[in-house]
Write a structure and sequence with these properties.
The chain has about 280 residues and is mainly alpha-helical. The chain is about 80% helix and about 0% strand. The protein folds into two domains: about 1-145, Tetracycline Repressor, domain 2; about 150-275, UbiA prenyltransferase (Four Helix Bundle (Hemerythrin (Met), subunit A), Up-down Bundle), CATH 1.20.120.
C-alpha cells in the first residue's frame, strides 16, 4: 500500500487538492462541491503523476531507489491500472459539477499526459506546466460557479509565469540524472546558472503582477504587502534551495516554491474577490 501511495506523488497532489478546495470556498461552493472538486483534482494529478513514473521507469532504474516501479514494488501494469482508475475518478467527480467542469478536467489530463508522453525530456518540458497551472483555479471556479470571472484576466498570465518557473525548478532537480541519461530538459538547455536566474525572474514577475493588480483594484498597500509577503518568503526559500548542489535540497526547494505559489494564488483571489 505504501508503494502505491508513493506512486501517486502525494505531496504535489495534496497541495493541488488543498489549493483547489480553497478556491472553491472563495467562489462560494458548498462543502459537497469543495470535497468533490478537491478530490477530483487530486485524482487527476495522481493519474498524471503515475503515468509519468511508468514512462520514466526504465530511466529511473538504478538512479532513483525510492521509486516503486524500478525497484519492483509495483508492476507497470498495476501502475497503469491505477492511473486509469484515478483518471476515471477525477473525470466522474468533475462531470458531477457539469459539462464545463468536465471539459476543464479533460484539458488538465490532456496537458499532463502531453508532458508525460511527449514533452518531458525536451527543451519544451516547461510548456505543459505553464499551461497547466492556470487551469487549476479555472477548474475550481468553473466547478463552483459554472463560469470564469473577469478578474481571472490578471490571474491567468501570472499563473502562466508561475507554471514556467515551477517547470524550470522541477527540471533543475534532475539536471545531473538527465545529463547522465542523455535526456534533454529546459534546465539543461539553459544551463544551471541561467535556469536559476530565469526562474527567479519569473517568480518576481508573478509577485509584481499580483501586487500591481491588487493595488489597481483598490486594496490598501499594507494589506497587499502582507498578502504577498508571506507567500513570497516561502517561494524565496524555495528559490534559494533550488540553487543547491544536492538534488534532494533542490527537490525541497521545488516543493516550497509550489506551496508558496499556491498560497499566493489563494491569497490573491481572496483579496481581489473582496475588493
Amino acid at each position: 500500500m505504501a508503494a502505491f501511495v508513493r506512486l501517486t506523488h502525494p505531496f504535489p497532489v495534496l497541495v493541488d487538492g488543498l489549493a483547489t478546495g480553497a478556491v472553491v470556498v472563495l467562489a462560494g461552493g458548498s462543502t459537497v462541491v469543495v470535497s468533490a472538486l478537491a478530490a477530483g483534482m487530486m485524482s487527476l494529478q495522481a493519474a498524471i503523476g503515475i503515468v509519468n513514473d511508468v514512462v520514466d521507469a526504465p530511466l529511473d532504474a538504478g538512479r532513483k531507489p525510492g521509486k516503486p516501479i524500478p525497484v519492483g514494488l509495483v508492476g507497470p501494469r498495476a501502475a497503469v491500472r491505477l492511473a486509469v482508475v484515478a483518471a476515471a475518478a477525477g473525470l466522474i467527480l468533475s462531470a458531477l459539477q457539469g459539462l464545463p467542469t468536465l471539459a476543464v478536467a479533460t484539458l488538465i489530463l490532456a496537458v499532463g499526459f502531453l508532458y508525460d508522453l511527449r514533452l518531458k525530456g525536451t527543451a519544451w518540458s516547461w510548456l505543459p506546466f505553464a499551461a497547466g497551472i492556470p487551469l487549476l483555479p479555472v477548474y475550481a471556479w468553473v466547478g463552483a460557479t459554472g463560469s470564469v470571472p473577469t478578474l481571472f484576466g490578471t490571474l491567468l498570465p501570472a499563473a502562466f509565469c508561475a507554471g514556467a518557473a515551477l517547470a524550470i525548478a522541477n527540471a533543475m532537480v534532475d539536471v545531473e540524472r538527465d545529463r547522465d541519461a542523455g535526456v534533454s530538459s529546459v534546465a539543461l538547455t539553459l544551463g544551471p546558472r541561467r535556469s536559476w536566474w530565469v526562474h527567479l525572474v519569473l517568480h518576481a514577475a508573478v509577485g509584481a503582477i499580483a501586487s500591481a493588480s491588487l493595488l489597481a483594484r483598490g486594496v490598501p498597500h499594507a494589506v497587499v504587502l502582507v498578502g504577498v509577503a508571506g507567500p513570497a518568503v516561502v517561494v524565496g526559500a524555495g528559490v534559494a534551495l533550488a540553487g543547491a548542489r544536492a538534488a534532494d535540497h533542490r527537490e525541497r526547494g521545488w516543493e516550497l516554491e509550489a506551496v508558496g505559489i499556491a498560497l499566493l494564488a489563494v491569497g490573491w483571489l481572496l483579496l481581489a474577490a473582496r475588493a
